[in-house]
Write a structure and sequence with these properties.
about 575 residues, homodimer, Rossmann fold, 3 domains, Threonyl-tRNA Synthetase, Chain A, domain 2, BirA Bifunctional Protein, domain 2, alpha+beta, 8-stranded mixed sheet
């Protein structure tokens, strides 16, 4: 079965499920007014005007009735009738009447299953028996024709699958999404918090900060390897600068402003102008290019409070930013290298499903046709050389240059845009940047903006959910917890602890007086990847027992061999 | 000779030097009106009203004349005369007349040397021949009686010493202060810059950022060793919070404000409230105390543009902040540990002259007599146990608790306040902080605020000047530069380079086509601590020659042995 057909089939199934829900509602709450019930990307919904609002507990009732209708296995029949006839059937439903009037021509479709008739343009399974693997998920608010000025409605949403296995997998994933929501994990694992004193501004607790620091150190190790040079530039700069850069015009509603010495300053929403000022601080020769400036820059961007979402959508975050100043003919090489860099990083974080998009010249754009062609050509050639597959999104580049985006799929099958590589012809013009070429002429450089993780805070959230809280050893804030079976091993535990700490292994001792089973459970709840269990036997043999988070145990391990393993995990350089 | 007598003697010498200057002025510019000419901490000055303003070139003329008077070796005589007589002598000098009127009683002192008479209460050397080691330093503006509403005057400043050696040392130090001004070094070594787009906000260039990162990594290694936990908290928070913390009332003129969602936010001038909110995020048990939270927190504080001074006085800087939440009876232990920590750090940066000050309860203060006594007692006991000498500054503590300050002397004999340890009874009250003690009761913790470096940016400047730009190997942004004698060693240089980089040694190759002497000079100008010089001999023997910044050379060094040395320098942990 080809994907499009399959996709069409599932939409038909889900639209049929909406009718199934409507039939159940009519049986149990006959005065409810039905409006529309389409299939969506992931399921279906029906928007209705109930006499009394539906509540969560009604979903069970409705589901029971739906199962009955499935068992009754009514054939689903579709036919065309005149509008006049249709208006008679739906005479007491103002919404359906409005829909009928809006349909062109004199005929409309209706669908019948058992006693239930609905207005419908068609596309159904053959009988209600086929809609066995269905579930209702939520009740939410909506508006007639999605317009806030119209009648408020209730939306009952659900989904359906062809097989019980698919439905079970979906339900498991839904549970996981709740269970492994980074906001929940963040609280349970004491990683970060938010406060009313700073809406959208995260507070990183010690373990969360440890994770951020590890991410930063890892990225720094690659900056070193790829000959980047790190800089840091001010958190706020004069408004004039943001006008010059164009950010003020495009972005001012998302920016925060301060007044200093009667001058308007803006808190930076991006790090680019800072890097540009560093570049402009002295003249540059072609010999220095490509000049790769990196900054872990804290930026502030206003988001409406309604769309803030844990660390995934905040008002202050840190970008792992890079600005590469280079000549036209270095673009391809830099882009190729950056693709490689992004791939290395994403692999390290165990993202294996990566989609690459190339976005080309939009209608409104600056720069010459020639520049754009050369730039897109460089990107295409770099992508070709990288051997990666990619999709082209015509006209979706930024106004100042084409870009490459990396979209990753996480363990719960969601897609996230992370890294970007962006060519910029506009910045060098706006700030009149130069370098001196080998003939002594002043030449305009190109700027390549690139971010690998993007926002460290957002990537933190994505990674936390991707690993369902069980971070790999190298990224775990506590890597090893030492558990003693009885108090007799206390001193031995301390020795082991001191030894691990000496090698910068993030270890701790469980000093509680709990039973060993309780200690193991506690470590598992905290998702600590490795436990060292110490009993009399281990003490006698001067060895350790390793218990992994997944329950696998390794006995008779030599401490130094274990240290070597972890030191290797913790080593980013080389 | 005891220090006080010596101090008195030098003051007498310098006051005599002021008379010497005045005599020279009277000889060359007889219409100049003299006002006062006291000794100061470091020298002397004479404030005068000239007919035409003195300029820099006049200092040489005056100095020549002073030398003459020294050679003439006039005895200096002091006697008392009646005010009436004095007024006759100084009849045409309104300032001296005013001074005479202000002296109580009927007599005033005058001092005579050769043809010159000055009003003076006494204290001189015996003859002008004793003032041989004198120098004039500057001309600046001043006001009669230091009041801007009075007559504007010119101040000619100088200094004098008992010996030529002391004078030479002083002059060398003056030269050094100019030569090794961190702003000059920062530009020459391409470490940082400032821009009109952000007055008082530093931009760190790659090499400067490398130094900051090394400082941070070093401090982090100690945080790890001393069981601190790092956090990060928002750059801006609601104004209400700053009102609650008391910062708003005491500090609002130094703070920057933004409006977000129609609420007033303040950019943080301190990190304390952030750490307190992290503490408050969940309940705490006595078992967790002392809880040591560290933050490398970027703060913004408004300073008048006139007092901004390179990195020594900026408007945005990073504190190596620590907030320790502990019980009353843990104060002594924490303070002792923190003194140790500060001493370790200052020693690492080669500051050996450290003065410790204990500041006690000021008149206006919060907390009970009992709390203060206990707190001061803890500080005293910790200081006693540390074995360090310290001075007590009665009444100079903060209103919220007593404090210990560390003052360091740099290589140019200037004193800087760096580390502080501050007890705080007020924060825990204002934010109603608790922990649960071993009996299950809610108890108020104490907060100990501590900073080791203080402002990273300011410490950066102090260190840069202290080392006169020649940073120790571990702190140098470029640790090793590889120089080839001819192009024949290019490949060998690359091998050595790759090997060094593998061990995270900050190395680079001089790829210029300069002579070896030119390459050495360039490296010296950039104050790179170590050069590896490679010629045919080194290549043959598979060895390297090390040339230190001070010119000392080591031949026949094995690369691995050298790597081991530097790796040891770069290793902070253990």
């Amino acid at each position: 079965m080809n994907n499009d057909i399959k996709n069409n089939d599932i939409k038909i199934l889900r639209h049929s499920a909406a009718h199934l829900l409507a039939q159940a509602m009519m049986r149990l709450f006959a005065d409810t007014l039905l409006t529309i019930g389409p299939a969506t990307e992931d399921g279906f919904f029906y928007d209705v005007l109930p006499v009394n609002n539906f509540k969560e507990e009604h979903l069970e009732l409705l589901t029971k009735e739906m199962k009955k209708i499935v068992a009754q296995n009514y054939p689903i029949e579709h036919r065309e009738i005149s509008k006049e006839e249709a208006k008679k059937i739906f005479f007491n439903n103002q919404f359906k009447l409005e829909l009928i009037d809006a349909i062109p021509g004199n005929f409309v479709g209706i669908s019948t299953q058992g006693e239930f008739i609905d207005l419908c343009k068609g596309g159904h399974v053959k009988s209600t028996g086929e809609i066995a693997h269905v579930v209702l998920l939520s009740i939410s608010g909506s508006y007639w024709r999605a317009d806030r000025n119209n009648q408020a409605l209730q939306r009952i949403s659900g989904t359906a699958f062809f097989t019980q296995e698919e439905l079970d997998a979906f339900l498991k994933r839904q549970e996981d999404l709740v269970e492994y929501d980074h906001r929940k994990l963040g609280k349970e694992l004491d990683l970060f918090s938010f406060a009313q004193e700073g809406i959208g501004f995260p507070f990183f607790h010690p373990k969360g900060q440890q994770i951020l620091n590890t991410m930063t150190t890892y990225i720094r190790s690659l900056l070193y390897k790829y000959n980047y040079e790190e800089i840091s530039t001010p958190v706020m700069l004069r408004q004039e600068l943001w006008q010059q850069s164009g950010h003020y015009d495009h972005y001012k509603d998302f920016m925060y402003f301060c007044v200093i010495d009667e001058k308007q300053y803006a808190v930076r929403p991006m790090n680019c102008p800072g890097a540009i000022l560093v570049y402009k601080n002295r003249p540059h020769s072609y010999r220095e290019l490509p000049l790769k400036l990196a900054e872990f820059g804290k930026v502030h961007r206003h988001e409406l409070s309604g769309v803030l979402h844990g660390l995934l959508r905040v008002r202050a975050f840190t970008q792992d930013d890079g600005h590469i100043f280079c000549s036209q003919d270095q673009i391809e090489q830099i882009v190729l290298e950056t693709i490689e860099l992004v791939m290395i990083v994403l692999k390290k974080f165990e993202f294996n499903d990566i989609a690459i998009r190339l976005s080309t010249r939009p209608e409104k754009s600056m720069g010459t046709e020639e520049q754009w062609n050369a730039a897109v050509q460089s990107l295409l050639q770099a992508l070709a050389k990288s051997g990666k597959t990619f999709a082209i999104f015509e006209g979706e580049g930024a106004f100042y240059g084409p870009k490459i985006e990396f979209h990753i799929k996480d363990s719960m099958n969601r897609s996230w845009q992370c890294g970007t590589i962006q060519l910029d012809f506009s910045g060098p013009e706006n700030f009149d940047l130069h370098y001196i070429d080998h003939t002594g002429n002043r030449v305009r450089p190109v700027i390549i903006h690139r971010a690998i993780l993007g926002s460290l805070e957002r990537f933190f959230a994505i990674v936390l959910e991707h690993f369902k809280g069980s971070l790999p050893v190298w990224l775990s804030p506590v890597q090893v917890r030492i558990l003693t079976i009885t108090d007799k091993q206390k001193e031995y535990a301390q020795e082991v602890f001191v030894h691990l700490r000496k090698y910068e292994i993030r270890a701790e001792i469980d000093r509680s007086s709990d039973q060993i089973s309780g200690k193991i459970k506690a470590a598992q709840l905290e998702k600590i990847p490795l436990m060292i269990v110490l009993g009399d036997k281990e003490m006698e043999k001067n060895s350790i027992t390793i218990r992994q988070r997944n329950g696998v145990q390794r006995f008779n391990v030599e401490l130094n061999a274990f240290v070597e393993e972890i030191v290797k995990e913790n080593k980013f350089f080389n």
